[in-house]
Write a structure and sequence with these properties.
Strand content: 35-45%
Number of helices: 1
Number of strands: 9
Mean pLDDT: 89
Helix content: 10-25%
Radius of gyration: 20 Å
Largest sheet: 8 strands, antiparallel, barrel
Low-confidence stretches: none
Structural class: alpha+beta
Oligomer: single chain
Distance between the termini: 60 Å
C-alpha cells in the first residue's frame, strides 16, 4: 500500500522496504545459527565450504557440493576437491578420507562465539579438525591440521544439519 503522505515509490517507502529486508535477514540468520548449534551438539552436521585456504595463504573458491567436512552416525568425512575437472583418488577432483571422531571439545566464550575441535583417525587420516562459529551466524572457519605433516587447509563456509546439506561424497581412501 502506498504511503499516504509521501506517495508511491517514495524514498520513505524504499527505506521501509530495506529495513524490513534487514529484519527478515536477521531472523533467518538467527534460525540458521540455532540449527547449526543444535547440529554441532548432536554431532550430525556438514560444513559446506565455498572457499579453501592452503598452507601458504593461497585461496581458491570451490564447489560446496564437493568440499566439506561432515560428522554423521559416528563417522567423520573430510573431502577436499579443489579441481573441478573430476578425477583424482576420489573421482571428484581431490581426496576423501573418513575416520572416527574423538576427543571432541566445544567451548563458547563470553561473546557467544563457539569453538569446536575433534580428532579424526582412520585409514588415510589422522588429523585435528577445529572450527570457529560466530554468535548469531552459521558461517564458519574450519581448519584441518594433519598430525603427520604441516599441510593445513582451512575451509570457509556454512555449518548445516546433515538433513539440510547437499554434498556429493567421492570414493574414500
Amino acid at each position: 500500500m502506498p504511503d499516504p503522505i509521501y506517495g508511491e515509490g517514495s524514498e520513505y517507502e524504499a527505506i521501509r522496504k530495506y529495513e524490513e529486508q534487514q529484519r527478515l535477514e536477521a531472523i533467518e540468520d538467527s534460525l540458521n545459527y540455532v540449527r547449526a548449534m543444535d547440529a554441532l551438539e548432536r554431532m550430525d552436521f556438514v560444513v559446506e565450504a565455498d572457499q579453501l585456504m592452503f598452507k601458504w595463504g593461497r585461496t581458491a573458491f570451490v564447489n560446496t557440493a564437493t568440499n566439506f567436512v561432515s560428522v554423521h552416525d559416528g563417522e567423520a568425512t573430510i573431502q577436499i576437491a579443489p579441481f573441478n575437472a573430476g578425477g583424482g583418488p576420489n573421482g571428484v577432483g581431490g581426496i576423501t578420507v573418513t575416520g572416527t571422531p574423538s576427543n571432541v571439545k566445544v567451548k563458547t566464550n563470553k561473546r557467544g562465539n563457539t569453538y569446536f575441535s575433534m580428532n579424526v583417525n582412520g585409514p588415510g587420516v589422522s588429523a585435528t579438525v577445529s572450527l570457529n562459529i560466530a554468535r548469531g551466524s552459521n558461517q564458519v572457519t574450519l581448519t584441518v591440521s594433519p598430525n603427520f605433516n604441516s599441510n593445513n587447509v582451512t575451509l570457509m563456509g556454512e555449518l548445516l544439519p546433515t538433513a539440510f546439506s547437499n554434498v556429493y561424497k567421492g570414493r574414500s581412501l
